[in-house]
Structure prediction request, 397 residues.
Amino acid sequence: MPWKETYPLQERKRFIEDWLRAGAATNVAALCRLYGISRRTGYKWLERFRQGGWVELEDRSHAAHRQPRRIAESVERRLIEARRQHPSWGPKKLRAWLESKEPQTSWPAASTIGEALKRAGLVRVRQRMRRLAEAAPSPLREPKAPNDVWTIDYKGQFRTGDGVLCYPLTVVDGYSRFLLNCTAHVGTSYEEARRGLERLFLQRGLPRRIRSDNGSPFASIGTGRLSRLNVWWLKLGIAVERIEPGKPQQNGRHERLHRTLKAETVRPPAGDRRRQQHRFDLFRQEYNQERPHEALGQRPPAAFYAPATRAYPSELADLDYPGHWERRRVRHDGRIKFLGEKYFLSEALTRELVGLVEVDEAIWQIWFGPVELALFDAANRVLWPLGSAVSGPRGGH
Prediction:
């Protein structure tokens, strides 16, 4: 039973004082009824007073006398030091990294490391968010080896300390999570993206596929949604793969990389683009060579990545088509001439060679390499572009 609604320690002292005044004649049961407590509680405090005096009337800590999960101070100091060195790493990553760097030390479990970081005030408690419905399975190809699929994206732009906009272009190997490129660009133009990718292709070779979103310069609203960058990739023998519009979760690994990149290199931004690039370079080195990844068994991406075997060619040839196909060179204005008339196809294909094949009476398919661009109705002289954000037939003119 509880003590009366006063300060508990005062009630216990008054209880003992009344017991002392009554001496041997004390009726403990009656005294307990007077204070509104059970006889068991009364006898407990009397026994404590006999053993240790007034100090024993104070509340005792309920904490365990032994803390088996408490770690040595030297180990805890090293964990805190590692966390401050890598503020975005969780307990699992920190443990794997420390085990690889200092294997002679017996590192505690990840849960114990998490408790140590909380005690040190190095864990920010996040509000639990309502779980959203699971996304539908992605139709995109799952990489089975390095360079099967590279993912590419521009992280959202921001201003460096001098007020100049910076657009980081990132490229990741989908199999190993190896960050192939992280370059501070001044914009998202085709020319700058191509220069950056040429350097990367010379260094790492050519992937089988490149996956992107539907933004510029990785896609367009024109025929086949091909951009100039896509045309170049296709001529290099690189398949073009895009996530569905409005579904960034289909490129979830790349999105997570961008969150980490932002947290570790852009908060706050560097003073100018050159210094920002230096931060990106340091991040890429650590991300590839040291940072453990749970999906890789807490090993870094460098343990799984190897350059591609297909080298970047010194010259690009036209794409080839079967012998019975018609061939047309796209003119400077994006049009082709067929059956005596000109039809607009795509400015992204300017000066490129396309192939045409008759698949039904007076119905022709128009292709650029592996990409079907349009259907041509020769009887009505109408061209129907495929995969374009702007639908509708195009007649000759």
Remarks:
- The radius of gyration is 35 Å.
